[in-house]
Hints:
The chain is α+β, with helices and mostly antiparallel strands. The chain contains 6 helices and 11 strands. The protein has helices spanning about 5-10, 20-35, 40-50, 55-60, 95, 200-215, and strands at about 70-75, 85-90, 105, 110-115, 120-130, 135-145, 150-155, 160-165, 170-180, 185-190, 195-200. The protein has a 5-stranded antiparallel sheet, with helices on one face. Helix 1 (about 5-10) packs antiparallel against helix 2. The N and C termini lie far apart (about 45 Å).
Amino acid sequence: MDWSAFVAALKADVDWSDPRYMERQAPIVEEILLRAAASPEVIHERTEAILADDELFGRLAPHMAYPRILMDKFVLHMEDDSPFRVRLHRFKTKRQNGGAIEKVHYHKWHCSTVMVRGGYHERQFEILHCDEAARTARLAVQLQQDLSPGQTNSLPAGRPHQVINESDTEPCITLFVRGPSVLPHARIFDPEQEVFYNTYGPDEQLRVGLSHMGRLDPDFH
């Protein structure tokens, strides 16, 4: 499989509008990811192609995030007419991130991933109760799993989870695909305090922040 075939399969074989992503589409996406991960030169060739193309690099770079404390994010595919994005994620070691731990959160889109190198521990949560007005939520751990190279994982929009690279020395690298947004925002939870707040894309997040600052609210997230 080369990069063009990988992207073509994600376009042709997956119904990104299917509301039953986990049951009907996630197995297809995971199989495509497995085929790509079996040929690591595909990823290398794509990153080299991005670096060699100033226009492509300039278009993708604003959506990347490097360096970050917990996880570096590199976008490999994103097009205006494409309902999905492909990224490389690099989860830092405990030594690199200073022992920082990812917050419990959910995404506004469905996603699937394949472990390329290293591994991580994931906890998924069930929302037992949520009060939107009071911004409170009670969660319970629904699933705990460890992923190692060659294993896949999918997550539906709106399911809280937390990923931890428990290694002191080995970063964790995943090839990751996310679908279109199906919820208005992502959400960050504090299970101990039973509270949450919403997060948005960069422009909308700025609008939210400006609105709160206009009300002289110093405690917004």
